[in-house]
Design goal:
- The protein is an alpha/beta fold and 874 residues long.
- The protein is built from 28 helices and 34 strands.
- It folds into 5 domains: 254 residues, Rossmann fold (3-Layer(aba) Sandwich), CATH 3.40.50; 187 residues, Dimethylsulfoxide Reductase, domain 2 (3-Layer(aba) Sandwich); 116 residues, Barwin-like endoglucanases (Beta Barrel), CATH 2.40.40; 107 residues, no CATH class; 59 residues, Arc Repressor Mutant, subunit A (Orthogonal Bundle).
- Strand 28 and strand 29 form a beta hairpin.
- Helix 3 packs across helix 20 and helix 4 packs across helix 13.
- Bound molecules: ligand MGD (2 copies), iron/sulfur cluster and molybdenum atom (MO).
- GO terms for molecular function: 4 iron, 4 sulfur cluster binding; metal ion binding; molybdopterin cofactor binding; oxidoreductase activity.
- One of its GO terms (biological process) is nitrate assimilation.
């Protein structure tokens, strides 16, 4: 692919997590990009995690959607846009504005988001636009609005470094916000007196730097923070002066006193240690993420945390405050433009007639949504029931990520008219579309994103749009124009949209909104091109900084509100499945799945389960488990570990119909939502578990795409091909036939059979080079996958069927350092053989952990467990 401009580095922003790292991208002479961290960006100061570092590997055209499609056939843009506009207009004319809906994404750029929201709320006149942020940030938004009167994140990233105590609640920062984690780890190293506490039922990589890990009962966070509020009061640790600025203290305290701290299931001594640490440390930051938000009491959990910070006045001051981490790169931008069904642009209130009138006046638009629209779970229910007859999904993959995912997929499949805008051709959702619209992606589009600390940064175009792909804002504006509203959507560039948004924010600021960037209202194209990262607000009244230290809130009486929280604990079912993320993959893997480097760390969906549970269920380590409930089923690789609590196994969310059809864990999640925010409880799915009765297990590699036909399979890319884990309940009649179908060949394989051990191995060579191989066994296939992967495409003979390296070649084992491809076995040998017991020493010897640093927590834990094993042996 040809870069847009010359060889100079272009500043842009990473498209993955909400840390919002600055990236320097240098187009390479031979095509592609060289990517490094931007040393001048305040979020990362030159650092990148492994996902950011591997961005260049995800830019190929493989799998891209390059032209519009109508019912599967390629179509021109005019035809596709005409059809979309006509069907939406007809549906609205016949069934009213609420019979159509948009489901959008926190991975939209702010400009895309603004345009989608304007079309739905101001022109179609419905608020049926919701976003995947409903699955992600809705409880934080609702908690903020209850307490502050506005959706404001009070603090800054530097607070983490300035705090004396940082509490991570339901956040696996080491894997999900790695650069922020590195900043925290560096601050702790520089100032060893600093304390870190992790509150998570699971022992995660983030516990690596923790002084205390509270493995509380899942869902009991509100009980924990209520216990803290009661303790704050008992000790007189409240801030008397600050209490003057608050309402609701007595009621909140009373509810807290009535709460039984025993509900947390924590040992009394541990609980006391935490309460003492929190109460006796002034500079405290409480950082929280999906362990809080994704719960049927997520909003209450948020307010239980905010209550403690408000009562102690520890908010909006250096090193102090509650801090809600955003997941997606532009979750914050989406909230700013009012992308949620219950919000209005620029943090204005959709339920306030004066706000609605002001926005409609500004837009000079023909309509205005009369009130909130349907939230994600309700929206897909309305699709299922035929109340929504035309649906446009943009930049998200709900058939894989919504709770009750199989039912959501069926609902989409049954809808009269479904449009999907995506970069990729084949996802669980694109497969269900009547019209597919090809969108440009990262590095191909211009716009802005806002990170977790309210910092707005530019994403810049570095590469030309591939094929016929177009920018999302333009696609939406083109449809709006065809619906008869050209004048409201007549921008020529994202810069003009940004300027309009900035002007509207000035009006919002005058109405009392915290979000005001009107200083940029007159911005022109050149200034937009040169825009440096900045913190909002940016207005004549104030620029950047923290919120609420002055005790002035955005509520009608200006007071902060403490909210009484009465924790409800769901009764524990036999198994309560926790779900979340792994270090090197992003959501449904449409982009990270293209990188061999990112696919090395974890190549398969898995189930972390406690040894007691595994024993009782007769689950074999590295075998397969079948999970089911009345909504769906899944088959996952068993990983026996005491990192999780008995009864509370964990599974990652990343696998889909494209990569591992039986690994779609969202199909098991019930559509239970928080009553205030409408956010689903994605961290707790009641499930039953049993061993998957596999008659055979297989492992395959191939230089060309594979077509597995068996109950269990999971594919991952390799340099020069792909690998697949396989398993089936019945033996195929003929392994050669099975392998030929799998690899799409009629060639004659090399075969090695060991009938006694039930082992079967087949290899297909082409011109003396290994084209594909299948290894089958009656038990989980034991062979060095990293070794076998290196054989693909190489010159080979019958010895390829040995499955392990010769004695002179050490086996790397599972990859730990994805940047340099260093495996667990090499690191273990360095620890035990060479006596290296620091991450630095291992880095010096092997280079592991010396590039992006994402694997440093795992290296440290390998050292710790090796030392512990040595001590136990002595
Ligand atoms: N590598 C990677 N990074 C990502 C993403 C990705 O896909 N991959 N996605 C991004 C996005 S959109 C998001 S939203 C963030 C999510 O970032 P995080 O919220 O940090 O990640 P999760 O793994 O979803 O869940 C965090 C933790 O919540 C814990 N948890 C579950 N139930 C409870 C509970 O009841 N109480 C408490 N205290 N904890 C609980 C889980 O055990 C888990 O360790 O990550 C962002 N960053
Ligand atoms: N069980 C369970 N379910 C969960 C969660 C969980 O923890 N547990 N987490 C939830 C959370 S927090 C989140 S954020 C969601 C994420 O879930 P999704 O948003 O569904 O996941 P993604 O894979 O990020 O989907 C983004 C899609 O947009 C496409 N895309 C990328 N860039 C662009 C672009 O510029 N334009 C367009 N038009 N398309 C683009 C990608 O190819 C991809 O298909 O999952 C939620 N679901
Ligand atoms: S921490 Fe990693 S994924 Fe997140 S923005 Fe930075 S480089 Fe991207
Ligand atoms: Mo998210």
């Amino acid at each position: 692919m040809k870069p847009v401009s010359g060889k100079t580095a272009i500043r842009t922003t990473c498209p993955y997590c909400g840390v919002g790292c600055g990236v320097l991208a240098t187009p390479q002479p031979g095509g592609g990009l060289a990517v490094t961290g931007d040393p001048d960006h305040p979020a990362n100061r030159g650092r990148l995690c492994v996902k950011g570092a591997a961005l260049a590997e995800t830019l190929g055209l493989q799998g891209r959607l390059l032209a519009p499609r109508i019912h599967g056939r390629q179509a021109g843009w005019d035809e596709a846009l005409d059809l979309v506009a006509r069907r939406f207009s007809e549906t609205i004319a016949r069934h009213g504005p609420d019979s159509v809906a948009f489901y959008v994404s926190g991975q939209f750029l702010t400009e895309d988001y603004y345009v989608a929201n304007k079309l739905m709320k101001g022109y179609i006149g419905s608020a049926n636009i919701d976003t995947n942020s409903r699955l992600c940030m809705a409880s934080s938004v609702a908690g903020h609005r209850r307490a502050f009167g506005s959706d404001t994140v009070p603090g800054l990233y530097e607070d983490l470094e300035q705090a004396d105590l940082v509490v991570l609640v339901g956040s696996n920062l080491a894997w999900c916000h790695p650069v922020l984690y590195q900043r925290l780890a560096a601050a702790k190293e520089a100032r060893p007196g600093m304390r870190v506490v992790v509150v998570d039922p699971r022992r995660t990589a983030s516990c690596d730097i923790a002084d205390l890990h509270l493995a509380l009962a899942p869902g009991s966070d509100a009980a924990l923070f209520n216990a803290l509020l009661a303790e704050i009061d008992r000790r007189g640790a409240t801030d008397g002066g600050f209490l003057e600025n608050l309402s609701g203290f007595d009621a909140a305290l009373q509810a807290a006193r009535l709460t039984d701290p025993g509900a947390t299931g924590l040992p009394a001594r541990q609980l006391a240690e935490f309460l003492d640490l929190w109460c006796s440390t002034r500079r405290v930051v409480t950082l929280y993420s999906q362990g809080i938000n994704q719960s049927d009491s997520g909003t209450d959990k948020v307010n239980a945390i905010l209550n403690c910070h408000l009562a102690t006045g520890r908010i909006g001051r250096p090193g102090m405050g509650p801090f809600s981490l955003t997941g997606q790169p532009n979750a914050m931008g989406g909230r700013e433009v009012g992308g949620l069904a219950n919000m209005l642009a620029c943090h204005l209130d959709i339920e306030d007639p004066a706000h609605r009138e002001a926005v409609q006046g500004f837009w000079n638009s023909p309509a205005m949504a009369p009130g909130p629209g349907l939230k994600a779970v309700e929206m897909f229910r309305a699709v299922e029931e035929g109340r929504i007859r035309a649906l446009w999904i943009m930049c998200t993959n709900p058939a894989a990520s919504m709770p009750d995912a199989d039912r959501v997929a069926r609902a989409i499949g049954g809808c009269d008219f479904v449009v999907v805008s995506d970069m990729m051709a084949d996802t669980d959702t694109t497969r269900l579309a009547h019209v597919l619209l090809p969108a440009t992606g990262w590095a191909e589009k211009d716009g802005t994103v806002t990170n977790s600390e309210r910092r707005i940064s530019r994403q810049r175009r570095l590469l030309p749009a591939p094929g016929q792909a177009r920018d999302d804002w333009r696609i939406i504006a083109d449809v709006a124009a065809r619906m008869g509203w050209a004048e409201g959507f007549a921008w020529d560039s994202p810069a003009e949209i940004f300027a309009e948004h900035a002007r509207l924010s000035g009006l919002a600021g005058a109405l009392g909104s915290d979000f005001d960037i009107s200083l940029h209202a007159g911005i022109g194209g050149a200034e937009y091109d040169a825009l440096r990262p900045f913190l909002w607000p940016q207005s004549a009244r104030r620029r950047g900084g923290r919120f609420f230290a002055d005790g002035v809130f955005h509520t009608p009486d200006g007071k902060g509100r403490m909210v009484p929280v009465n924790p409800l604990l769901a009764p524990d079912r036999p198994f309560r499945l926790n779900t979340g993320r792994v270090r090197d993959h992003w959501h449904t893997m449409t982009r990270t799945g293209l990188s061999p480097r990112l696919s090395r760390h974890i190549a398969e969906p898995y189930l972390e389960i406690h040894p007691d549970d595994a024993r009782r269920l007769r689950l074999e380590p590295a075998g397969l488990a079948e999970l089911w409930n009345d909504r769906g089923r899944a088959i996952l690789r068993v990983l026996v570990t005491d990192r999780v609590r008995p009864g509370h196994p964990f599974a990652p969310i990343h696998w889909t119909g494209t990569t591992a059809p039986s690994g779609r864990v969202a199909a098991l999640v019930p559509p239970l939502t928080d009553p205030v925010s409408g956010q689903p409880a994605s961290k707790s799915a009641p499930v039953s578990i049993r061993p998957f009765a596999a008659a055979w297990y297989g492992f395959a590699i191939s230089t060309r795409p594979m077509r597995p036909e068996c109950r269990y399979w999971a594919q991952a890319v390799l340099p020069g091909g792909s690998q697949a884990e396989l398993a089936g309940e019945a033996l195929p009649e003929d392994w050669t036939g099975f392998a030929r179908a799998l690899f799409g060949t009629t060639a004659e394989p090399l075969v090695m059979r060991d009938a006694g051990r039930g082992i079967m191995r087949l290899a297909f060579l082409e011109a003396g080079r290994l084209r594909a191989a299948l290894f089958v066994a009656p038990r989980p296939v034991a062979l060095s996958r990293s070794h076998v992967a290196t054989l693909l495409g190489a010159e080979a003979g019958p010895s390829v069927l040995a499955g392990h390296p010769g004695s002179d070649l050490p086996d790397e084992g599972a990859t730990i350092c994805a940047c340099f491809g260093i495996g667990v076995n090499s690191i273990a040998r360095a620890i035990t053989g060479q006596g290296l017991v620091t991450v630095e020493a291992i880095g010096a010897a092997l280079r592991a952990g010396t590039n992006c640093g994402s694997c440093r927590p795992e290296i440290r834990s390998l050292i710790a467990s090796s030392l512990a094993a040595k001590q136990a042996a002595e």
